[in-house]
Amino acid sequence: MKLLNRLGWLAVLGLGVWVGSALLGPEFALAQNTGPIQSGPKRPTRPSARTPDANPSTVPETPPAQELPKIETRSRLPIPEDTPVFRTDTNFVTVEISVLDNNGVFIPGIPAGNFQILEDGVPQKIVELGQSEAPMTVCLLIEFSNLYQQYWSEAWYQTLQASYGFIETLRPDDWVAVVAYDLKPEILTDFTQNKQKVYDAMQRLRIAGYSESNLFDALAEMCERMKDIEGRKSIVVISSGVDTFSKRTFKEAREAVQDAGVTVHAIGLMQALREWYDARGYLGSIQRMDFLQADNQMRTFASETGGLSFFPRFYGEFPNIFQALNYVMRNQYVALYQPSNTQRDGSFREIEVRLVDPNTNKDLRITGKKDKRIKYQIIHKEGYRAPSEVE
To answer: Helix or strand or coil: residue 353?
Structure first.
């Protein structure tokens, strides 16, 4: 009887510890996470959508769990050997341009004659320029690992707040894919216009599987898979920016992003939390430098592709961030020009876009109400890689 009483008390104590840990959550310890890779429960997988939904409001039945295929575009049919091949030396470069005021609002109605494009410092002749508002084709790339997103931690909550908040801004004609990454990227849903599918995919973001965060591998892989998608395409990265175990280097990831022609927008996580720990002496000099480097990496991926980067400290900043992303991704000027440099050397060509007065070639002065000058910024990709000679 005494033995049974002791076992009963042990069971009660164990239940109390379990309930306490579930309510309080694990402590956010930035100085830890140096141990071996931890494996977690395998997540259920399902095949990706191959074709657009005939009825976006209807959710198809989920097939049996199997290995989830990667995001792919339609493969091309093989070309018979006796088919003649035609070549052309005519190349055109498309530049998507966003002109925003100091509040992040898109400025419409700028005449085509005020745009000037320079490639490696040489002015180019613009063949066509217009303003467009189109549906978004966006991949939502979310960091979700045990490195920082432990269940019910502050970073876990902020990650879900940012992800769900962005999804709320989607319109019925937008295409979105959701990908989460830790040790490797996992496609939660392929490109779809069915918002219910997106919400169902987000339900899988509860318990992270691994304690690694391989940003470079995940971002480069998503850019390579989106390379052949026609039209405007973007990746919104919600991440701390920290990379722990990627096979690719930062330089290799940058090259993959530049080659794909995909615009990257970045939202950096844990800004206020990092400052709180730093002010109390919980961050060492190495960890502080790691986080600063992570922010610079996110900022570089965005700026080199003509995207925006945000590092919010408060949850109240999220609505303005999503509004700015909608302006940039939906409203753009699209310019088409034929490069004066026709060499096929595979080199990287830098692009600069200016707004000028065609009479004086000086920077264009934009005014608003009461002839008040408006400060503006021009967002575009920093360049492109020229094609190589095909033998």
So the answer is: strand
Question: Cα separation of 173 and 204, whole Å?
Answer: 24
Can you read off the two tokens belonging to residue 206? 């509860």
Single pTM value for the model: 0.66
**Apex CA 387: angle with CA 334 and CA 266, to 5°?**
50
Exposed / middle / buried, residue 33 (Cβ in 10 Å: 0-12, 13-18, 19+): middle
pLDDT tens-place string over residues 168-188: 999 999 999 999 999 999 999
Report the C-alpha gap between 215 and 255 in whole angstroms: 14
Alpha carbons within 13 A on the beta-carbon side of 368: 10
Cα separation values, 191 from 32, 70, 136, Å: 36, 11, 11
Question: Could you identify the residue written with the tokens 């074709």?
Answer: 51
Pick the CATH number of 137-329 from 3.30.110.30, 3.40.50.410, 3.40.50.300, 3.50.50.60: 3.40.50.410
Q: What angle do CA 250, 255, 257 make, to 5 degrees?
A: 95
